[in-house]
Amino acid sequence: NLGMVYKIRGDLKAAEEMYKKALAIFTSIGNKMMIEKVKPLLDQLRDNK
Predict the structure, then answer these.
(1) Domain coordinates of the chain in residue numbers?
(2) From CA 32, how far away is CA 49, in angstroms rounded?
């Protein structure tokens, strides 16, 4: 996931954008498993701000 790459590199703004894009894509195709994987990553990133 590109969000993880950006997070590791310290670019939290880009990481958040990638997580949001991933969440939107998974939501649009109805992939509940991936939605449940991305949501906590996005929440964790927001909590660390």
Answers:
(1) 2-47
(2) 26
DSSP 15: H
- Residues 7-39 have pLDDT tens digits of 999 999 999 999 999 999 999 999 999 999 999
Question: Please, are residues 35 and 27 in contact by the beta-carbon 8 Å criterion?
Answer: yes
Q: Are 16 and 1 in contact (CB under 8 A)?
A: no
Phi, psi of 33 (to 5 degrees): -60, -45
> Residue 49's pLDDT is what?
67
The Cα 12–Cα 41 span in angstroms is 12
Q: Which residue has the higher pLDDT, 23 or 49?
A: 23
Measured in Å, how far apart are the chain's first and last C-alpha atoms?
20
